[in-house]
């Protein structure tokens, strides 16, 4: 099988959504130049780059056959996410749900110009950035499709099937509407002096954190506002961070993490900043799931790519990567780094626990259960792996 060149493959939803949001609100990301002083980061770097135990090596992973590889008609630009044990795949013209064996369970066409996919455990939300339509589906059917008054900036889906949709509004800079599982608006918020760039639901989906972006003294500044859907006034407004927030995580212990383009910040349950860590080099990629965050930074002058691992209540762990990173993914308590030849797997402590050799090149990865899905230019392959 010939090697497929996927160096220009579009990254998945997490990065595509951020890029589209910034484009819509006409904001150019700040120059990523923040570095630690040598005294601060070099000792930690040396401590965390001691030789680790030899990882398990799966030499040349066998690609599954049968319905795999899944063929993508539109090629570049598709998105793949999990729905329980199923796969949700969105491309420029259609949406599919497959079971873990690659059998089609649902197929739909769409006409969205800039489609974005969000999933929960058993639902999928598709919305059109810059358009006015979004729809909610399960593995068997479409539940509803709605038309918004203003163009859509972004949308998010909770585990209880609430849809948060942020639109442009004539009344303010941006408007947030929360829709229940029937498609009825149950809560609204109008942001008059800053732009909404992210939504994070609490664990019960009874409220959310709204992340907003503004500028001060020419610098981008992100801050959070916490809401309970049973009342109109916000519960609190949090401290700000001089960064473009790309993701916000609400941890089980009620601490809150913000992953920014220049820094990772941790907050208490009232939005007060506990700590702030500026990356060692410009950010290249990131992944955040559960209570684990992985940030890939790249120092082009030194030709060095690093993995920075964040867990609440612990100092950042720094690892020098062995090869150029193409994608970073978190599954459970493991960090997966995709390169041209291998998938490297790390623990939260920065220990390399496994390495999988690949026979072809891929651009992104996705994992569900014992399967790792590999995204090529116009196909999705599957391998079996249990670490």
C-alpha Rg, in Å?
21 Å
Q: What best-fitting shape do the alpha-carbon axes yield?
A: globular
Please report the number of helical segments: 2
- Helix residue percentage: under 10%
Structural class: mainly beta
Low-confidence stretches: 1-53
Q: What's the total number of strands?
A: 33
Beta-strand percentage range = over 45%
Main sheet strand line-up: 1-30-29-28-27
Characterize the main sheet.
5 strands, mixed
Distance between the termini: 27 Å
Averaging pLDDT over every residue, what do you get?
87
Outline the structure in words.
There is one protein chain. With 387 residues, the chain is mostly beta strands. It has helices at 13-24, 38-48, and strands at 56-58, 70-71, 79-83, 86-90, 94-98, 104-109, 115-119, 124-128, 133-137, 142-147, 152-157, 163-167, 174-179, 185-191, 195-201, 207-216, 219-228, 236-237, 245-250, 256-260, 263-267, 273-278, 283-289, 292-299, 304-310, 317-320, 327-331, 334-338, 342-346, 352-357, 364-368, 371-375, 379-384. The strands form 8 sheets. Strands 1-30-29-28-27 form a 5-stranded mixed beta sheet, with no helix packed on it. The protein has a 4-stranded antiparallel beta sheet with strand order 2-33-32-31, with no helix packed on it.
């Amino acid at each position: 099988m010939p090697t497929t060149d996927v160096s220009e493959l579009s990254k998945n939803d997490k990065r595509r959504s951020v890029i589209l949001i910034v484009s819509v609100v006409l904001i150019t990301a700040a120059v990523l130049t923040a570095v630690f002083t040598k005294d601060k980061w070099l000792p930690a770097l040396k401590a965390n780059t001691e030789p680790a135990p030899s990882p398990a090596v799966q030499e040349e992973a066998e690609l599954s056959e049968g319905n795999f590889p899944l063929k993508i008609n539109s090629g570049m630009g598709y998105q793949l996410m999990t729905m329980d044990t199923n796969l949700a795949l969105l491309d420029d013209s259609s949406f599919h749900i497959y079971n873990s064996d690659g059998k089609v369970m649902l197929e739909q066409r769409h006409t969205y110009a800039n489609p974005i996919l969000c999933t929960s455990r058993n639902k999928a939300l598709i919305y059109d950035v810059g358009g006015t339509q979004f729809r909610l589906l399960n593995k068997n059917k479409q539940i509803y499709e709605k038309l918004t008054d203003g163009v859509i900036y972004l949308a998010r889906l909770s585990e209880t099937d609430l849809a948060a949709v942020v639109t442009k509004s004539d009344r303010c800079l941006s408007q947030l509407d929360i829709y229940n599982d029937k498609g009825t608006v149950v809560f609204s918020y109008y942001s008059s002096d800053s732009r909404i760039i992210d939504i994070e639901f609490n664990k019960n989906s009874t409220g959310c954190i709204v992340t907003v972006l503004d500028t001060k003294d020419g610098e981008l500044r992100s801050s959070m506002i916490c809401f309970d859907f049973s009342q109109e006034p916000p519960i609190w407004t949090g401290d700000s961070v001089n960064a473009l927030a790309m993701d916000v995580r609400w941890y089980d212990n009620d601490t809150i993490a913000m992953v920014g383009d220049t820094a990772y910040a941790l907050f208490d349950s009232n939005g007060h900043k506990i700590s702030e860590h500026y990356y060692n080099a410009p950010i290249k990629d990131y992944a955040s799931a559960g209570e684990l965050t992985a940030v890939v930074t790249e120092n082009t002058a030194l030709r060095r790519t690093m993995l920075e691992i964040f867990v609440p209540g612990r100092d950042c762990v720094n690892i020098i990567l062995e090869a150029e990173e193409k994608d970073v993914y978190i599954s459970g308590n493991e960090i997966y780094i995709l390169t041209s030849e291998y998938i490297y797997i790390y623990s939260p402590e920065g220990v390399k626990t496994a390495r999988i050799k690949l026979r072809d090149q891929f651009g992104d990865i996705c994992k569900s259960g014992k399967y790792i899905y590999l995204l090529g230019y116009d196909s999705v392959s599957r391998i079996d792996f249990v670490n």
